[in-house]
């Protein structure tokens, strides 16, 4: 078992309130306690506090330099296999257990959210889930496949709706059967002496690698897939009849591409938005199950 984080073990001091404790106890946004705890442990780490402020400007400077270098490299040059080998190596040896757990969870949550939308759409479509069970599974180009999957989903879904002459709307009864807690244990993540890098620092470090080892088109597509958070949020809100939940979306607007310099920060927001949407859908699933039990004879 993981030890109790300091912000929970120390309790509340009214003369010196802990910001992390306040964030943990706040329930204004949907997030399960065990996920929120892992997120805050990672966010309150020494790596996040002392290393990230130096890494972020260096990483963004590297993005600019790499963009200059790539003007002399063939446009279609890319090394996706090498990229994923480096990412897997870095995650296993340097990234914190909480960050690795959240990264693996993200693939599962994304797959379940797309399956929920695809199955409940007026024109249902099948999805292609990516659900790695360990860090080594990411070696199969899963980071690149994740971005491609998202764009293909939006295209296929809207083609199906157009072909059927339909618009997205809520069905009489929602199917939540694809939603579940991912079968991933935080205790199973690597815990070596060097596994200290927080999620945001790791993402900032890995972003220039993305740019270097992928084509400009692949890198641009990956960075701007983050703005599809609003698109996915709108689909979910339409199915749930709950447009107020769109306030939780931070990556906007898909028709206005942003600079790739802030891709690392936006990727963190993307991960948090996915966690909150999945938590909201799980809550709606529980409500439907409870209503079914009450209505049963």
User: What is the global morphology?
Assistant: globular
N-to-C order of helices and strands? HHHHHHHHHHH
Head-to-tail CA distance between termini: 42 Å
The fraction of residues in strands falls at under 5%
**Weakly predicted, low-confidence segments:** none
* Number of distinct beta strands: 0
How is the biggest beta sheet arranged? none
Alpha-beta classification: mainly alpha
| Percent in helix | 55-70%
Radius of gyration: 20 Å
Oligomer: single chain
Count of alpha/pi helices:
11
On the 0 to 100 scale, the average pLDDT is 90
Task: Describe, in plain words, how this protein is organized in 3D.
This protein has 297 residues and is mostly helical. It is built from 11 helices and no strands. α5 packs antiparallel against α8 and α6 crosses α10 (228-240). The longest helix has 33 residues, at 263-295. 33% of the residues are buried.
Short description:
By secondary structure, this protein is mainly alpha-helical. It has 11 helices and no strands.
Which secondary structure elements does this structure contain, and how are they paired or packed?
Elements (H helix, E strand, L loop, with lengths): L5 H4 L9 H7 L7 H11 L2 H24 L10 H15 L2 H24 L21 H23 L34 H15 L2 H9 L3 H13 L22 H33 L2
Top keywords for this entry?
297 residues; mainly alpha; globular
